[in-house]
Design a protein that fits this description.
344 residues; 2 domains; 14 helices; 21% strand; 39% helix; two-stranded antiparallel ribbon; nine-stranded mixed sheet; alpha/beta
């Protein structure tokens, strides 16, 4: 090999290295020059258009294709604020079907935990609703949060919360292997604006028994605060449900939570995401025609939903919600719901 040829090869080598180096340098800046498509995490909300609570409950769960209860001790939170007919409280058919379905899914134990609102005791309300008889028939336990001693509550202080000194939360829920919730579709005339999945969690707080050991009304603190709806969301930081079933066969489009203008919504929803299912619930209330408070602004600007999304309790926008259906009627209705979600 001649000296001249070696010199040319060396020159070509340096030229190629320089070119590669330049490409490497330029490639560092390419991401800033073009949009990067990011994968958006989607969450599923099943939607069943039906007037049949039994079939609707089963189908709403089946469509999700999840089983978070197999082999686990499950705590079930219903909505028995009062004994009023659904949607004032959980319908006994929905409760029965949900419990039998959870057993079929392999739940090793089911404990219903609830505290009712003012006006009557939790025990009387559950007796009027037939829950005590159902517990004997189906074989599940009941924890009456209204009668629970202070030793069975734990103090929970959410960071950056609007709660003055946190709140007491049931030990049975904090230590649960799995939590399932069933809620109704309705408005809330006492400051919540709507009471769906997030608001259902208020029934997990005690009627008294404050952090100092004396009587303290968390409900007074909640309802007297201008941050009531944000505080509702903050309660939800104390636990994470694995499954939520919303009974929307009937709905209150104003009034609530115990009585209101009743309409036939004929829909059952299922999800593992409280924010997503509440957003869908608000969209349905808007389709039905509801209060100015529930109709105003974007759905993800509603105080409960906005605060819950900020806290990382679920999806942050309607774009992350995937509606799952199993039949033509449900699919057609889901399109309307999705359109309403897209508007706000």
């Amino acid at each position: 090999m001649t000296w001249k040829r070696k010199k040319m090869e060396r020159r070509e080598f340096i030229k190629k290295i320089s070119l590669l180096g330049g490409l490497a340098l330029v490639s560092r800046y390419l991401p800033a020059c073009r949009p990067v498509k990011e994968e958006t995490a989607m969450t599923k909300v099943s939607l069943v258009k039906t007037a049949d609570r039994v079939e609707g409950t089963r189908q709403a769960i089946k469509l999700l294709k999840i089983n978070p209860v197999k082999g686990k001790a499950v705590v079930l939170k219903p909505n028995f604020n009062t004994a009023d007919p659904a949607p004032g409280s959980t319908h006994i058919d929905t409760l029965r079907t949900l419990i039998t379905t959870l057993k079929e899914m392999g739940a090793k134990k089911i404990t219903l935990a609830e505290r009712s609102g003012p006006g009557d005791t939790s025990r009387n309300i559950m007796e009027k609703k037939g829950v005590l008889r159902l517990a004997t028939e189906l074989g599940f336990d009941i924890v009456n949060l209204q009668e629970m001693p202070k030793s069975d509550w734990v103090l929970f202080r959410p960071p950056d919360s609007h709660w003055k000194d946190g709140f007491l939360f049931p030990r049975v829920c904090r230590e649960a292997e799995s939590i399932v919730q069933t809620c109704c579709l309705k408005t809330h005339q006492f400051g919540g604006h709507f009471t769906l999945s997030l608001k259902c969690s208020v029934g997990m707080l005690p009627p008294g028994l404050g952090p100092a050991g004396g009587e303290y009304s968390y409900m007074n603190e909640l309802h007297s605060s201008r941050f009531q709806r944000q505080m509702i969301a903050e309660i939800n930081t104390a636990y994470s449900p694995d499954l939520i079933v919303m009974d929307g066969v009937e709905a209150f489009v104003d009034g609530g939570p115990h009585m209101g203008t009743r309409v036939k919504a004929e829909v059952m929803l299922g999800s593992s995401d409280r924010v997503a299912i509440d957003a869908v619930g608000v969209a349905i209330l808007r389709l039905l025609g509801t209060t100015p408070d529930v109709s105003r602004g974007k759905i993800f600007e509603q105080d409960q939903i906005k605060r819950a999304a900020e806290l990382g309790l679920g999806v942050k926008s309607a774009d992350q919600i995937e509606l799952i259906t199993g039949d033509k009627d449900s699919a057609e209705y889901a399109k309307k719901v999705k359109e309403m979600l897209g508007k706000g």
